[in-house]
Design a protein that fits this description.
Structural class: alpha+beta
Number of domains: 2
Shape: elongated
Oligomer: single chain
Distance between the termini: 22 Å
Largest sheet: 8 strands, antiparallel
Number of helices: 9
Strand content: 25-35%
Order of helices and strands: HEHEEEHEHHEEHHEEEEHEEEEEHE
Length: 337
């Protein structure tokens, strides 16, 4: 973990948490539990939205993280939640948020935070295993907003990495289908992890196309590849992505509505990443998808990796994020897999 924040020492931790083995953190993976006095919640929510404002259209917008507040008196009830934040705002010593924060931080860190210094303090597994625990201590709203703006990318990355680490264990640690994985790599020079429950729907060397899926909820993952660098710019990436559904799946169409495209890191490569909505050509079905296009210079191939979900009437954000973790298990001979 990079040292972007001030060094954190939680004095009194043994008194607050107690001795013995810690339980595994509980709660929804995409919920951020915030302990904060009611009068401060509007300002705190506004500051947190600098970090947690993004949504996924599924087609209804679903936030990547939901912010839920609890009273300071409920600290012991919620302190073992996965994503946990305690906030003390202002300098009033009678503010219950400040009284709690003062117990959690060292005297030096608390005093410096209330004099306009570092306002954000983070550690892992303080009250439970596989937990992210954050203390926010600011002199006022402006101080908190400046600190959140300064650290927002780093802070968000900590939450995302915890989510990926926990979900990767859930997806891959039990009953992976290792033989089909080995056969894929032996046949094509690339591989992808195949969790329990996935069925290979098509494995076509002639068309350079691999497709697997599972139900409950219904989801597909596919990989397509061709020699050389065939997608050179954003316009070509958009055209290829929107054509992929009908070209590869037949009765699935990727649509322009709410379509997003950008360039970002993907494992060891830089990829064109798309997200958007798909619809069935012949039936009233649809849902969200992710799509990656990238060129690998060692194998001299352009790869397209796609994932989509059909889960009508249900929240899809967790399933979609699990699916993206699965897509990122892709590897070629020169990567670690």
């Amino acid at each position: 973990m990079r040292k972007s924040f001030a060094a954190i020492i939680f004095l009194g931790t043994l008194l607050l948490i107690g001795c013995g083995q810690k339980r595994t953190a509980i709660g929804d993976e995409n919920k951020v539990t915030v302990i904060c006095p009611r009068p401060d919640r509007a300002q705190v929510r506004s500051a947190l939205e600098l970090v947690f404002s993004d949504t996924l259209f599924t087609p209804q917008p679903e936030p990547y993280y939901r912010i839920e507040f609890a009273d300071v008196e409920e600290y012991n009830r919620y302190k073992t939640h996965i994503n946990f934040i305690v906030v003390g705002l202002g300098t009033d010593e009678n503010n219950p948020g400040n009284r709690l924060v003062k117990q959690l931080l060292s005297a030096v860190n608390y005093r410096q935070s209330k004099n306009g210094g570092e306002a954000l303090f983070l550690t892992g597994d303080l009250a439970a295993e596989n937990q992210l625990y954050v203390v926010m201590s600011a002199t006022d709203t402006d101080h908190l907003n400046r600190q959140m703006q300064k650290h927002r990318k780093w802070l968000r990355r900590q939450f995302d990495e915890l989510f990926d680490r926990r979900q990767s264990g859930y997806i891959f640690d039990h009953a992976r289908q290792e033989l089909p994985e080995e056969q894929l790599f032996g046949k094509y020079g690339w591989g992808i992890k195949i969790p329990w429950g996935y069925e290979i729907l098509r494995d076509s060397p002639d068309s350079s196309f691999f497709w697997m899926g599972r139900d409950l909820p219904y989801r597909w993952v596919s990989v397509s590849w061709e020699p050389g660098l065939t997608v050179k710019n954003e316009q070509e990436a958009r055209k290829r992505t929107l054509a992929y559904g009908q070209e590869k799946y037949g009765d699935i169409r990727f649509i322009d509505h709410l379509y997003q495209l950008d360039q970002r890191p993907f494992i060891d490569w830089t990829a064109w990443r798309s997200s958007g909505l798909w619809e069935s050509v012949g039936e009233p079905k649809g849902g969200p998808f992710f799509h990656y296009i990238f060129y690998d210079g060692i194998t001299d191939r352009t790869y397209e990796i796609n994932g989509l979900v059909f889960f009508p009437g249900k929240d899809k954000i967790i399933v979609m994020r699990q699916l993206e973790i699965l897509l990122k298990s892709f590897y070629v001979e020169t990567t670690t897999g």
